[in-house]
Amino acid sequence: MIKKTLLSCVSVLFIVAVAHAQGPTKSDLINDENDTKNVTVYGMGYKQQRHSPLKNINKGNISRLAPKWIYSLDDDRGQQAFPLVYEGIIYFVTHNTTIAIDGVTGKEIWKKTIEYDKDTLRYACCGVTNRGAAIYNNKLYRGSMDGKLYAYDITSGELAWQSDAFADIEDRIGLSMNVAPLIANGVLISGVSGADHGARCFIDGWDPETGKRLWRRYTIPSPGEPGSETWPDDDSWKLGGGSTWLTGSYDPELDLLYWGVGNPAPYNSSVRPGDNLYSNSVLALKPKTGEMAWYFQFSPNDPFDYDGNNEFIISDLKIDGHARKVIMQANRNGFFYIIDRESGEFIDANKFVKVNWADGIDKTGRPIESALFKKLRKTGEEITLWPANTGGKNWSPMAYDPESNTAFVNTNHYAMTYKFSKVKYRPGLPYFGVKFAFSWDESQPYRGYLKAIDPLTGKSKWEVPQLSPNYSAVMNTAGGLVFTGTHTGEFIAYDKDDGKQLWSFQTGSGIVGQPITWQFEGTQYITIASGIGGLYARYSGDERLKHVPKGGTLLTFALVK
Description:
Layout: H1 2-22, H2 26-30, E1 51-52, E2 65-72, E3 84-86, E4 89-93, E5 97-102, E6 108-113, H3 120-123, E7 134-136, E8 139-143, E9 148-153, E10 159-164, E11 182-184, E12 187-191, E13 202-206, E14 213-218, E15 249-251, E16 256-260, E17 281-285, E18 292-297, E19 313-319, E20 322-330, E21 335-340, E22 346-351, E23 358-361, E24 367-369, H4 371-379, E25 383-385, E26 399-401, E27 406-412, E28 415-420, E29 434-439, E30 448-453, E31 460-466, E32 475-477, E33 481-485, E34 490-495, E35 501-506, E36 516-520, E37 523-530, H5 535-539, E38 553-559
Parallel strand pairs: 1-32
Antiparallel strand pairs: 2-38, 3-4, 4-5, 5-6, 7-8, 8-9, 9-10, 11-12, 12-13, 13-14, 15-16, 16-17, 17-18, 19-20, 20-21, 21-22, 23-24, 25-28, 26-27, 27-30, 28-29, 30-31, 32-33, 33-34, 34-35, 36-37, 37-38
C-alpha cells in the first residue's frame, strides 16, 4: 500500500514536471489575455491592451497591497523588461542575465549570464537595456546587445540554441538588440536598434525550435525595391535607419503582425528629400514569410526622431455606426492614430498633447505641416518644438480598458530647441546632423501627465500631473485600477474612473519597467521591476532625479490580511 501511494505521488510529480517542461502552446499564447494564471505574451496578450480581468485586488482593498518579496537583480542599469509568468514561475531578463524565479517565494531557480565584448556596450545603439523575452513550448527566448538570440530550456535554464542576427552584416557596429521577441503563428520575430547610429535596420523571422532564420525584411528598401523611389538617388539608404526596437502586436484571426519602424537617418532631413519609406511606419506582415500586406507611414521625412515604434493596441471599435477592426497608437509625434488593421486604411488621428510641428492630419493620414516646421525646412534655423524628440509619449506602453474604451497613457510635457547642423557619419556614433536641447517652461512645474484618453477624440477624461514624466508602462484591471511607476520610485495605483490616487509604494529606485498581474492558487499577484535608467533619466538633467539611487530589483505584491 505504501509503495503504491509513493508510486502514485511520483507519477503525479512526473506529469506536472512534463507539463511544465512542455510550456505554453500556440493556442495558449492566443488565449493569453484571458488566462489569469499565466502571462506568456509581451503586453499581456497579442492585443497589447495590458488589461487584466482579475479583480481580487480592487478599489475596495487596494490599501492592503504590500510586497510579498523583493529580488535583487544585481544590476544598476535601467530595468525595462516585461516579466513573463508560467505555472507560478517568473521569467525575467536584464541586459545580460536571464532568470527564473519562484513567483510565490521569490527564490531564484536558475540564472544565466551573457558575457559581452568590451566594445559592445560602448558602441551599441541606443541604451544598454533589454525589454523582455518570449516563451513557447519548452523554451524561453531573448536577444542581446550584440545581436545574439538565445533559447533556454524553461525548466533547467540550459542553452538549447544560439543564433547571431548580425552574422552576415559586414558593418555591424551601431546595431544592437534590446527588443522583446514575439512568437506569432509559430515563428519567433525579432527586431533591432541602430537608426540613431546610421544602421540600416530590419525585422527577422526565426524557427523557434532550431534557431534557423526563416526570413528577413529590411525596413529601408534598396534601389529597385518598392519604396526606394522615396529616397535620394544615392547611397543614403545604406545608412537609412528604420529601427524595429519595440515589440509588435499580432492578430491570429487575420494572421497579421503589426510592427513599428523608427526614424530615418540622419535626423537632418535636408540631406534625404522624399518620404523615406518605410521609416516612421507600421508594417503589417505575414509572420510565416515576412510578406508585407500593407503599411502606413505616420511622419514622412521625419526630422524629429518621432519614430513609429510605439505599441499598437488591437481592438474592435464602432466608428460612424460601423464596427471596425483597428489598431491604435499614441505616436511620439503627438497624435493618437486609429487605423483599419485589415486594410491599413487611415481612419483618424487627433492631438493628445501639445503639438506645434503640425496643424493636424489630413484625410489621407499625412501631417499638415505648420508654418514653424516649414521655417525649419527652408532655413534650418532654430525652432522651439512641441513635443520634444522624446515624443508626446515615449516608448513606455499604454494600457487600454475595452469596457470604457479608454487608453491610459503616460505623456511628456516639455519642448526642445532644434536646428539643423552639418552631417557627418562616424561608425558607432550618433548620426544626427542637428543640435537640440530640452526646453523647460519654469512657470509650469509639471513635465508629464498620466492621462485617460478617449481614442476617438484624443481628449482626456482625466489627467494626473507629474513633476517628472513617467517612463513606466501602464496596466489596468477589472478591479477598477490603473497601475504605473514614477522616475522617483513610487509604484502607484489610481482609480480608473477619476484618476484619484488610491495606493503607493516606494520601491527604492526609479521605475521604467512594465507591471503585470497574475493569479496562482487563488491569490492575485502584481509584479514590477524597479531600477532607474533610460533616455530621460540619463540625458534630461532633471534636478528632481538627483537623489534617486540606481539598483535593480524585481518586486511582487499581494494583499495582506
